[in-house]
Amino acid sequence: MTIKAFQKYRPNLHFAPKENWLNDPNGLIYFKGEYHLFFQHNPHDTIWGPMHWGHAISKDLISWEELDIALYPDDHGTIFSGSAVVDWNNTTGFFHDEPGLVAIFTHHKDSEDGRPAKQTQSLAYSTDKGRTWFKYEGNPVLSHETKIDFRDPKVFWDSDNNKWIMSLATGHTITFYSSPNLIDWKFESEFGEDKGSHDGVWECPDLFKFKTEETEEEKWVLFVSIGDNGRSDMGSRTQYFVGSFDGSVFKEEHNDVRWLDYGKDNYAGVSFSDIPEEDGRRIYLGWMSNWRYANEVPTVGWRSQMTLPRELSLRKVRDKYIINQKPVGELNRYFERNVNIKDIAIHQGESKMYNVDEPYFELFLEIAKGDENQFGISLNHTQTNRTTIEYDSKSNTVALNRDLSGEVAFSEMFSLEQSVSIDDSATLTLQIIADASSVEIFINGGIYAMTSLVYPEKICETVTISSKKGKLSIYDGYLATPSN
Ligand code: FRU
Predict the structure, then answer these.
(1) Closest CA relative to residue 430, chosen from 463, 470, 474
(2) ipTM above 0.95?
(3) Residue 398: which of 450, 346, 353 has the closest Cα?
(4) Which of 47, 108, 151 best tests ligand 1's pocket when mutated (most atoms within 8 Å of CB)?
(5) What is the pLDDT at residue 1?
(6) Residue 108 CA, closest ligand 1 atom number
(7) Is the whole-model pTM more than 0.95?
(8) Residues labelled as active-site residues
(9) Residues of the chain with CATH 2.115.10.20
(10) Fold of 12-327
(11) Which CATH architecture has domain 330-482?
């Protein structure tokens, strides 16, 4: 295997493992000046296999340093997804002089000798900023007699009720447990049997509180990923519920299904724990792939990467509470705006071309939405390969097409169009961030996100913006390329 092949499609702005397989982000936490990203990792192969927790740290969420594997399989099983917390008040009794980190994760045991597979929750702790981990000798701390899908604990300290709360994926529901010490867990409630989408098994929950931006109202949000399925063209994806939580029961306030992302490649994402209060952000990271084809994507020596870290907020848009996502501000340092795109009119049948021969870039456009408008943005990877983003005012949709983007044959579903119907605001903003093998689009300030993998020979030679119908008026915008 040549080094070159090993590097092909390797992202510049996104975390990817040095080698072998990655899936869900785990144990996302900020502690003593470092962001920690643990991740589902098979260190023996480029396909999913016996799970470990890989580990990387960063000071700015964008440049990551991969460290040694944090958690290895043991007698209780392999290490599935989970979370991490700082045990500030030593509720566990694991710490002496200083607070440390506790990981709460699923032990997965395959079925053997006629016994079904078993998933249980366990603990590990670290007193040296996550560099070494000790498994708790009383593991597992939570198991279930009959449930086989019993995984992905996400834990936070509920300061209103003075207890730890765990959200756990339990088949087609999320079950909430509470604990004074992370060791003894008590059942609180079960949510979701007849709510939301059940196209796939429920996985990777995350529950947190938000102040709505427009109204300052307090709401709770529950993220639930739905696992691999062929029921729609979308495969595995993440939905969310907005509602209330009283320390025991979560109640949603709506009947419609709300998707976090309208692209196919944002799954199993959760938010960082212990972001300092003075920062106050809710920062999210997802796994940038889809179980429909994750094991087949055409990279060599390594496989899979994370989305860009995103700052989440809760917006009230036309009486609907919506999760807004935008890339974290730390990303700005990696870009230099070198082309202004201001007050530009492109008439029907005409187009404008920009050169972008760079390893990654950002394109931002603020566009007047006409009554009869149809336009396209083509990321021309090479002479023959392109990814296109199209807007049509009739259906009011933004669509991404990657059927000609490069390598696509590894999955039938990969080349099917992705689209989103957007609200009827007068302007349309598009922030497009393209890296070596991904295109992430944030529409109208992040009310809609569309995350997509692509496998072109080269990320982009040129970008063309063309009007297919009506006059396209761009008020404002820029093209940004890597800063030095
Ligand atoms: C989600 C998931 C989790 C599980 C992990 C196993 O992608 O299926 O439910 O813990 O991946 O790797």
Answers:
(1) 474
(2) yes
(3) 450
(4) 151
(5) 43
(6) 10
(7) yes
(8) 24
(9) 12-327
(10) Tachylectin-2; Chain A (2.115.10)
(11) Sandwich (2.60)
